[in-house]
Specification:
Layout: H1 2-12, H2 22-34, E1 38-41, E2 47-51, E3 56-61, E4 75-78, E5 81-84, H3 91-104, E6 110-115, H4 123-126, E7 136-139, E8 147-152, E9 154-163, E10 166-178, H5 197-207, E11 211-217, E12 228-233, E13 244-257, H6 260-269, E14 273-278, E15 283-296, E16 299-308, H7 311-326, E17 331-338, H8 347-359, E18 364-368, H9 373-380, E19 384-387, E20 392-393, E21 401-403, H10 404-420
Parallel strand pairs: 3-6, 3-7, 7-19, 8-18
Antiparallel strand pairs: 1-2, 2-6, 4-5, 5-21, 9-16, 9-17, 10-12, 10-13, 11-12, 14-15, 15-16, 20-21
């Protein structure tokens, strides 16, 4: 266990935000070579490591969602959890990497795949050039210790754009800032019905009859928005709201967005969050997150991320969202579409279940309302796949924390599984 924590601490000190993973790529490549692995790296930055005659491949992604002060990460332990001060922790998926590093020092027959830029559209998996030697793949990117995952949601990015014009006026200006929002993973945390800072800001401006001078919010496509800010004209002092910090800037000339009313109607009318729930699997079946809002170069840009665990649901949600924004004269596009992994129980998942159940009696085979790279990889290569991982709470946020006792349990499971297939 101590080796895994040391591995993670070392990883946390190497910047590896999505699209900025070069230093960690070099570190992992060097580490693998030191442990006797043959290493190759493809054009997308996926690192393939192989030693001996492996029957099983371990896989994790090595980019992280950087929130708050990240990539400057200051770790601390509290009540059995590993946390980071004022930043995301990067346990998603750094803890999986740390476990893999330990296994690389223990086994002579092992294949490892470190994929790149998973958090920004599963880019590494979609562009994987390496052909795996093993016939089984164990992904370590799950965040609930009791689950063996054999299915995941597909997703699609959606962008809606609208040109806007400016008009001059004179009056009271206010600077608005969203405060106290939780944010979180737009798949795993969407069921919590966490408030969306963009929508709450839009509601506040509308209720107080404001005119938008500028408005932006959100952090990334796959996170529930935590931050938002706006410059707004109100004729009268707005009502107090615990989630919207309001600062009066005085009376002055300003240029406001002539499409202000239309934008507020769109943001307030759009249905954020869970769209359907699967009672058989006890997970969200389809959802959509209004992720980003930007006003630049006289154009409003709204970005959304739709997820669904069944292909027809994903296509339907994509269609509905595009039609919604087209009705308000937005120019729309969808991209980065990837289908769900509608997996089935297999020999690997059953073996992992047998081992996990000895350690965690509540163990179960399930699916998840989030994207997993193994769902893409197994479509292109004939593999038996499943996913496990330690308890990680509030990933993609500054509240991210990882349960240390859970890391130890999952590392034991991985060790036993690898022993089985030596």
């Amino acid at each position: 266990m101590q080796n895994i924590l040391e591995n993670f601490k070392n990883l946390s000190q190497i910047p590896h935000c999505s699209f900025e993973t070069e230093k960690l790529k070099e570190f992992l490549s060097s580490y693998a070579k030191e442990k006797g692995f043959k290493v190759s790296i493809d054009k997308t930055g996926n690192i393939h490591c192989i030693k001996g005659k492996p029957k099983l491949c371990l896989q994790s992604h090595y980019d992280m969602v950087c929130m708050g002060n990240a990539p400057k990460i200051e770790l601390y332990e509290e009540k059995g959890f590993l946390k980071a001060k004022n930043s995301s922790l990067g346990a998603d998926n750094g803890m999986g990497i740390a476990i893999m590093m330990k296994m690389m020092s223990k086994f002579n027959h092992l294949e490892c795949l470190f994929t790149n830029d998973e958090e920004v559209g599963l880019i590494g998996a979609k562009n994987l050039e390496h052909k795996l030697k093993s016939k089984m793949l164990l992904n370590l990117d799950h965040e609930d210790e009791k689950d063996i995952i054999i299915g995941c949601a597909g997703g699609v990015d959606i962008k809606a754009c609208l040109d806007f014009k400016l008009s001059k006026d004179f009056g009271k200006l206010y600077e608005l800032e969203a405060t106290g929002f939780k944010g979180g993973h737009s798949g795993i945390d969407i069921v919590k019905n966490s408030k969306n800072s963009i929508k709450e800001m839009a509601k506040f401006i509308k209720e107080n009859e404001g005119l938008i001078v500028s408005f932006e919010g959100g952090e990334r496509i796959n996170s529930i928005p935590k931050h938002a800010k706006a410059l707004v004209h109100f004729k009268n002092e707005p009502k107090k709201n615990k989630h919207i910090k309001c600062k009066f800037l005085g009376e002055k000339e300003f240029r406001f967005c002539k499409q202000s009313s239309l934008l507020l109607s769109v943001l307030n009318a759009f249905s954020q969050g869970v769209r359907s729930y699967n009672t058989d699997l006890n997970i969200v079946q389809s959802s959509i997150n209004l992720s980003l809002l930007r006003m630049k170069e006289k154009q409003i840009e709204i970005e959304l991320f739709a997820r669904a665990n069944f292909l027809e649901d994903l296509k339907e949600l994509e269609f509905q969202t595009l039609e919604f924004f087209k009705a308000f004269d937005f120019k729309v596009q969808s991209y980065n579409f990837y289908p769900p992994w509608e997996g089935k129980s297999n020999a690997l998942s059953e073996e992992v279940f047998t081992i996990l159940k000895k350690i965690i009696p509540q163990a179960k085979i399930s699916a998840i309302h989030a994207g997993l790279e193994c769902g893409i990889i197994e479509k292109n290569q004939k593999l038996l796949c499943c996913s496990i991982g330690p308890n990680i709470y509030n990933p993609h946020s500054t509240d991210e924390r990882c349960e240390l006792a859970s890391v130890e349990k999952i590392s034991k499971v991985v060790f036993e599984v690898l022993q089985k297939y030596q």
